[in-house]
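input
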Amino acid sequence: MAGGYMGRILFVDLSRGTMKEERTDEELCRRFLGGYGLAVRLIWDRQRPGVAPLSPQNILGFITGPLTGTPALIASRYMVVGKSPLTQTWGDANSGGFFGPHMKFAGYDAVFFTGESKKPVYLFLHQGDAELRDAQGLWGLDTVETEDLLKAELGAKTEVACIGPAGEKLALISCIINNKGRAAGRSGLGAVMGSKKLKAVAVGGDMEVPLADRERVLDLRKRYLSSLTGSLVDYYRDYGTCGGLEGASVSGDAPVKNWRGVGPINFPGAEAISDDNVIKYQERRFACWHCPLGCGGHVRVTEGPYAVEGHKPEYETLAAFGTMTLVDDVEAIIKANDLCNRYGLDTISTGATLAFAMECYERGLLSLKDTDGLELRWGNALAMIAIIEKMAEREGLGALLADGVKRAAERIGGGAKELAVHIQGQEVPMHDPRYLPTLALSYWLDATPARHTQGGHWAYDLPATSRQRLGIPDQEEKYLYAGKAEIFKKVTDILHVVSAAGLCHFGCECTDIQYVPDFLSAVTGWALTLEECLRIGERISNLRHLFNLREGLNPLKFKLPGLIIGNPPLEAGNLAGIEVDVETLAREYLASRSWDPVTAMPTREKLTELGLEELLKSWPEK
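output
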């Protein structure tokens, strides 16, 4: 087996309470690496199309990458995968912290769950052994309580990924939490976990991740660590992502007032929920396993209605609960973030759903009776906090909102659908394509709709050496739409490799992209070039896409909300008059992928080139 892999994958049938192990297939790893790359290949063979996401037949996976838990730079990530109940598409969610590395130290590369337990259970992986244990005493507890109890029972060095009440109650915007505040947030996979009555996965052990060339790996770490200098590195260390909120509100990057507002006009107080006004509550920094950046933090609000201790809110959370709802009380947002972490709710979807509900209230589509007497006005922080708790428990208005804006709009009726900003059921993240146009491609055409971490939209934020290696010109004319497809494709493909390998995307931003093939080669023993990595990324991209096509889902049929592309354009602010030419972007991108412009089907030649033509044998008959 290549270095970087523990060589073992566990398959758990929760209906029968049985488990079996398989050896990690080195050939598949060589072609798909790990993470969602390897996962989608494994699930492809084991799951028929058309499975209901909350049924026992849907396969739920927890999977690491070959660099997870190794000395490679910023290598702490793991992924949760499965068919999404929110979008009906391929679903995946990525998280850092300590769970991923310790899953490998427990002896496993991945674990996949099928079936549905009759009673709540959790899985304990330790030193190469696996055991399903009763979790009835944990059911109903929040994620912090669950983690504390499992650590007390299993040992302080145990790491836990679990759901809270939102996942137990099958909220389609629920997520999976580890380290009390690191979230595998998107795709609604917390609901899949809840449908299987799987409360948690606990991992522990000290098994060593094998390295093909240990000396080379350590030398690379030393070399790349020395390159982590400059303003961006300092920014992440000083603030994490919370330092960008004010600037994003002014520039138009952060959506305002459910995507209809303009930062300086509708939310002039953005400074109150950005950078130093967040950091002043930070008691200590938080770094994921062996991370040299340490962009996270633990914060405390000591008094008042929002007194709380928990994780620092990230940019997406600050925008979702701040610019989107016009709440400028940073203590309230810290509280909202902690509630979502405890209940197991995706903060992007939760904040976006609250902003949608506020606009419905403003327009008379929701009454005081509908809102349980809460005045759901823009900027009403107390009402925001109350609704989050109701969403998690599916109480009153919360039951209507717990599945996100698409389902809520369908239930409300009366024009609410026009206010619901989503793609294929998933709320759009807190970066505006009117500010960065190629985001529209990520949100629309990636296999997991409405994902800001899945595209090459920030190609020009890469270091100069990385841009040179990838053939990206130094200057960007962002509102020139032609000629962007190949750049976008390259960066998207390399990001698939970064994710599948178990790396954090911030590493790409802070050092030379060559670190990816360098570490992969040294850890696995495969001699990988950057070009070969790009080919692996292209293979992963196509297979995730094929998963959706086999489900009968053509992304070109997904509705792209007019608001996020300037249809109609804003009349004021930095983005006034901007209308994204998404047709040109999509047409050229499809051509660069060799995907049909109508069906989105990859050509047989492309699939053959990528070694994927064999998958057509299992294509559903028409």
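quick obs: Residues 8-204 form a domain with the Aldehyde Ferredoxin Oxidoreductase;  A, domain 1 fold (CATH 3.60.9.10).
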